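Dear support,

Our group has been running a series of protein-ligand predictions, and this particular one with nickel (II) ion is the one our PI (initials K.S.) wants archived with full inputs and outputs. We had some confusion internally about which version of the output was final, so please treat the block below as the authoritative record. The input we submitted was:
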Amino acid sequence: MGILEIRTFPDKVLKVRAEEVKDINGEIARLAEDMLETMYNAPGIGLAAPQVGKSLRVIVFDISHKEGEKRPYILINPVVTATEGSEVMEEGCLSVPGVYAHVKRAAKVEVKGYDLDGKEVTLQAEGLLARVIQHEVDHLDGILFIDRLSRIRREMIKKRLLREKG
Ligand code: NI
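Confirmed final output from the archive:
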Protein backbone atom coordinates (compact mmCIF):
# COMPACT_ATOMS: atom_id res chain seq x y z
CA MET A 1 0.00 0.00 0.00
CA GLY A 2 1.18 3.47 -0.70
CA ILE A 3 0.20 7.00 -1.48
CA LEU A 4 0.76 7.88 -5.13
CA GLU A 5 1.64 11.22 -6.65
CA ILE A 6 -1.40 13.01 -8.09
CA ARG A 7 -0.80 14.43 -11.55
CA THR A 8 -2.18 17.89 -12.17
CA PHE A 9 -3.12 20.00 -15.21
CA PRO A 10 -1.48 20.32 -17.76
CA ASP A 11 0.10 16.83 -17.36
CA LYS A 12 -0.36 15.00 -20.66
CA VAL A 13 -1.47 11.75 -19.04
CA LEU A 14 -4.71 13.53 -18.13
CA LYS A 15 -5.47 14.23 -21.80
CA VAL A 16 -5.23 10.78 -23.36
CA ARG A 17 -7.77 7.99 -23.55
CA ALA A 18 -6.83 5.35 -20.99
CA GLU A 19 -6.48 1.71 -22.04
CA GLU A 20 -8.86 -1.11 -21.15
CA VAL A 21 -7.65 -3.43 -18.42
CA LYS A 22 -7.20 -6.81 -20.09
CA ASP A 23 -6.26 -8.85 -17.05
CA ILE A 24 -7.60 -8.03 -13.59
CA ASN A 25 -4.55 -9.30 -11.70
CA GLY A 26 -2.67 -8.53 -8.51
CA GLU A 27 -1.03 -5.51 -10.06
CA ILE A 28 -4.43 -3.97 -10.81
CA ALA A 29 -5.64 -4.81 -7.30
CA ARG A 30 -2.59 -3.09 -5.83
CA LEU A 31 -3.11 -0.06 -8.06
CA ALA A 32 -6.77 0.20 -6.98
CA GLU A 33 -5.87 -0.09 -3.28
CA ASP A 34 -3.15 2.55 -3.64
CA MET A 35 -5.60 4.79 -5.49
CA LEU A 36 -8.10 4.49 -2.63
CA GLU A 37 -5.40 5.31 -0.09
CA THR A 38 -4.28 8.28 -2.20
CA MET A 39 -7.88 9.47 -2.55
CA TYR A 40 -8.61 9.28 1.19
CA ASN A 41 -5.32 10.98 1.97
CA ALA A 42 -5.92 13.90 -0.43
CA PRO A 43 -8.80 13.96 0.67
CA GLY A 44 -11.11 13.40 -2.25
CA ILE A 45 -14.22 11.42 -3.14
CA GLY A 46 -13.07 9.94 -6.45
CA LEU A 47 -9.91 9.16 -8.39
CA ALA A 48 -9.15 7.76 -11.83
CA ALA A 49 -5.94 5.88 -12.68
CA PRO A 50 -4.65 8.54 -15.15
CA GLN A 51 -4.57 10.95 -12.20
CA VAL A 52 -1.80 8.84 -10.66
CA GLY A 53 -0.01 8.51 -13.98
CA LYS A 54 -1.46 5.11 -15.01
CA SER A 55 -3.28 5.26 -18.32
CA LEU A 56 -5.68 2.43 -17.47
CA ARG A 57 -9.47 2.27 -17.14
CA VAL A 58 -9.70 2.02 -13.35
CA ILE A 59 -11.71 4.34 -11.09
CA VAL A 60 -12.29 4.43 -7.35
CA PHE A 61 -14.74 6.50 -5.39
CA ASP A 62 -16.34 6.85 -1.98
CA ILE A 63 -18.84 9.59 -1.29
CA SER A 64 -19.50 8.44 2.27
CA HIS A 65 -16.14 8.72 3.96
CA LYS A 66 -16.58 12.30 5.01
CA GLU A 67 -19.38 11.20 7.29
CA GLY A 68 -17.03 8.78 9.00
CA GLU A 69 -17.91 5.41 7.48
CA LYS A 70 -15.96 4.22 4.46
CA ARG A 71 -17.82 2.74 1.50
CA PRO A 72 -15.22 2.35 -1.23
CA TYR A 73 -16.04 1.37 -4.80
CA ILE A 74 -13.54 0.07 -7.33
CA LEU A 75 -14.63 -0.19 -10.97
CA ILE A 76 -12.53 -1.63 -13.77
CA ASN A 77 -13.38 -0.75 -17.38
CA PRO A 78 -16.48 1.25 -16.37
CA VAL A 79 -19.01 2.17 -19.04
CA VAL A 80 -21.98 4.48 -18.54
CA THR A 81 -24.82 2.46 -20.05
CA ALA A 82 -27.78 4.78 -19.38
CA THR A 83 -28.40 8.36 -18.32
CA GLU A 84 -31.46 10.31 -17.25
CA GLY A 85 -32.22 13.98 -16.75
CA SER A 86 -29.70 16.68 -16.09
CA GLU A 87 -28.41 18.55 -13.10
CA VAL A 88 -25.96 21.36 -12.43
CA MET A 89 -23.63 20.92 -9.48
CA GLU A 90 -20.35 22.45 -8.34
CA GLU A 91 -17.29 20.28 -8.96
CA GLY A 92 -13.62 20.28 -8.21
CA CYS A 93 -10.83 17.87 -9.09
CA LEU A 94 -7.62 16.79 -7.37
CA SER A 95 -5.87 17.27 -10.73
CA VAL A 96 -7.15 20.85 -11.06
CA PRO A 97 -6.42 22.18 -7.58
CA GLY A 98 -8.14 25.32 -6.38
CA VAL A 99 -10.72 25.41 -9.17
CA TYR A 100 -14.43 24.89 -8.59
CA ALA A 101 -17.14 25.33 -11.17
CA HIS A 102 -20.73 24.39 -11.87
CA VAL A 103 -20.99 21.58 -14.42
CA LYS A 104 -24.10 20.21 -16.10
CA ARG A 105 -24.29 16.41 -16.17
CA ALA A 106 -26.89 13.65 -16.20
CA ALA A 107 -28.87 13.47 -12.96
CA LYS A 108 -28.97 9.67 -12.95
CA VAL A 109 -26.68 7.10 -14.48
CA GLU A 110 -26.30 3.40 -14.81
CA VAL A 111 -22.71 2.21 -14.99
CA LYS A 112 -21.34 -1.24 -15.67
CA GLY A 113 -17.83 -2.41 -14.93
CA TYR A 114 -15.87 -5.14 -13.18
CA ASP A 115 -14.73 -5.59 -9.61
CA LEU A 116 -11.34 -6.95 -8.57
CA ASP A 117 -12.67 -10.52 -8.80
CA GLY A 118 -13.52 -9.95 -12.45
CA LYS A 119 -17.23 -10.06 -11.66
CA GLU A 120 -19.49 -7.72 -13.62
CA VAL A 121 -20.99 -4.97 -11.50
CA THR A 122 -23.95 -2.73 -12.37
CA LEU A 123 -24.57 0.42 -10.36
CA GLN A 124 -27.53 2.77 -10.50
CA ALA A 125 -26.66 6.15 -9.11
CA GLU A 126 -28.10 9.61 -8.66
CA GLY A 127 -27.07 12.84 -6.97
CA LEU A 128 -23.45 13.12 -5.86
CA LEU A 129 -22.69 9.47 -6.66
CA ALA A 130 -23.89 9.87 -10.28
CA ARG A 131 -21.81 13.03 -10.54
CA VAL A 132 -18.61 11.39 -9.25
CA ILE A 133 -19.00 8.41 -11.58
CA GLN A 134 -19.41 10.66 -14.64
CA HIS A 135 -16.47 12.84 -13.58
CA GLU A 136 -14.18 9.81 -13.10
CA VAL A 137 -15.26 8.07 -16.33
CA ASP A 138 -14.50 11.37 -18.13
CA HIS A 139 -10.93 11.15 -16.79
CA LEU A 140 -10.56 7.80 -18.58
CA ASP A 141 -11.41 9.55 -21.85
CA GLY A 142 -8.94 12.38 -21.24
CA ILE A 143 -11.67 14.86 -20.27
CA LEU A 144 -11.34 17.20 -17.29
CA PHE A 145 -14.37 18.90 -15.72
CA ILE A 146 -13.09 22.25 -16.98
CA ASP A 147 -13.40 20.84 -20.52
CA ARG A 148 -17.17 20.75 -19.92
CA LEU A 149 -17.40 24.50 -19.26
CA SER A 150 -17.99 27.20 -21.85
CA ARG A 151 -14.96 27.92 -24.00
CA ILE A 152 -14.44 31.38 -22.49
CA ARG A 153 -14.64 30.09 -18.93
CA ARG A 154 -12.33 27.17 -19.73
CA GLU A 155 -9.71 29.37 -21.36
CA MET A 156 -9.76 31.78 -18.41
CA ILE A 157 -9.22 28.93 -15.95
CA LYS A 158 -6.48 27.32 -18.05
CA LYS A 159 -4.62 30.61 -18.39
CA ARG A 160 -4.81 31.16 -14.63
CA LEU A 161 -3.58 27.61 -13.89
CA LEU A 162 -0.67 27.91 -16.31
CA ARG A 163 0.26 31.30 -14.83
CA GLU A 164 0.20 29.85 -11.30
CA LYS A 165 2.42 26.99 -12.45
CA GLY A 166 4.94 29.59 -13.61
NI1 NI B 1 -11.10 14.70 -11.24
